[in-house]
Prior knowledge:
three-stranded antiparallel β-sheet; 26 helices; elongated; mainly alpha; two-stranded antiparallel sheet; 2 domains
Amino acid sequence: MRKEDNKEPAAAGTSASEKAQIGMLLQRIRPDKDQQLVEEIARSDMKADEKIRKIMGVDQKLSEMEGALDMKPNPVEVKVEKKPFSMEEVAKKNRRLIKVRQKKEKYFQFLFKHFLKIREFGKKSGLISSSFFPPRVWINPEYKKVVLPGFQNDSAILIRALKPLLQTGWIFLEKTEYNLLVQFRKLCESILNAAPENKQKTGVLELFREVERRFLVCQYQPEFAPIIIDSIIMLMKRSKRNDHDIQEALFHLRRLLTANTANPSLFDFLLVLNMAEYKKFLEFKEILQLVPGILISNFRYECDPQTQVEIDQYIEKNEAKIDELVARKMEIDKVERFMKRFVGEGSSGGDDIDFRLLRQLYDYGSRTGKTGFSQDQNALPVFAQNLFLQFTDNLDPLMGDKVEVEGFGPIRIFEKDMFKREFGVMQTMIHHLSQESFNSPHLSRERLYQIKYPHKDTNPSQGEASIFKALTSISDIVLEIGKKVGAVCMIYQEQPDGAANKGGIEPVSQAVIDRGYYSVPYWNKKIQIKGYFDGQTVEGALGQIASISFLIACFFYDDNMQSALSDRRSYIEEIQAIKKVLKRVADPAVYETIHRKYPF
């Protein structure tokens, strides 16, 4: 009868994740009445998914009717955030309360109600000796030679297996699962440390109090023992342990944690100790007391200090990854904003982009070797050389020198050397394109795409590879110019009346962009300058420079633009995946800080 009470109907067909979910649900704080109902559901014979549904139904009613259980965030986590270690203290205290206090049975009750049952149990288990005259029962001293050494052998083997698993198991386990393994290790250690006197026949239970307490923790919920077994086996498999070691561990785990092993089991042994001590026949459920609240903390991993250092380093490393991803995402967000403003809504980076501004710049004026925007594209090296010369020739006077501004005279719009590096690199690359145009003069934009995004059999010639490298470098530089000029347009704010008379006019510098604020009195005034931008307002000229820069990057399939147009979602998903891991690994207070910092 006892073994039927302790069988594990929920284990059959129940996945480790379902067991873990039930275990996590049991940790929530509820009123005593509702907690008792939840524990009855957990101990029932129904399927795991049905248990989960019913427990969540109880919590939902509490949330709606009483407001006693706030589902988001978990009330346990809110409480923990205010007092981080209270959860562990509550769990530790509760673990001391799960043994039902027993009183020694009165003699006649023992004689007429319990003696024969205990005697029969003793015959089956071989752990109890008895006599009729006088009627009495005691622990069979042979347990010290056979039974206890067997349990100690099981424990020694499992402790050796657990040591490396607990060092790395946090990577794969929820905190509740990991902390259950810690409690199981403590059970094994307490079994190894048990050393009864050779001649002792009475008071044996007192020597095994620690074993009993640890064992009751591991059996407190029907899911606990299966979680321990499944977690250890899973970690051993992930550690590439051989099948022999795994099967050996499984054998010893079942001997210590299940009631359905060959007699005598640890269940039997602890029951016998209680029967002999209190002179009453007991079933396992009669010595296990359910208490309100949690038994296994899910606040943090209860690991050794060195493992905690590794966990902290893991969290820091992943926070750094998020920082990097957020920086990339912010860069993409900025480019997306620029694209919407300076290129147009719905820009996708493909041939549907309107390159009209690029055409106008290319076709402006006359240049040797230039026919027209559409005609020259099949000879991409020559086309690129002409385009970038048009770009630099028309931008350099505006960005590197003073400009005549309507009503203000000569004004330096940009700090003198702000784009010195960019224009220097562009001149070098233009010269390189001029040399390479003789090697692969007919490289087309379609061929450029094939080289940049190869599928198969795309083997560029040496000349094509060299031109590709030059175009990549120069389009990156142009994009940087576009970002800076675009940022100026984005941060510009109209000056209040009379502000023009207060001090001098500040030229644009990187410091101005970093400050995030820019205002000048001539923003809507026309400029007089030789070339493409003559007669445009300052606002219009800078907007066109930003637009042309982004269009050039799109035209030459710049990686940054392609990322901006296609990879934003993947960055968010990657950030969310890392946060999901950190939510499992970090304690709730630390994770809440991370979540507030990265609210994706």
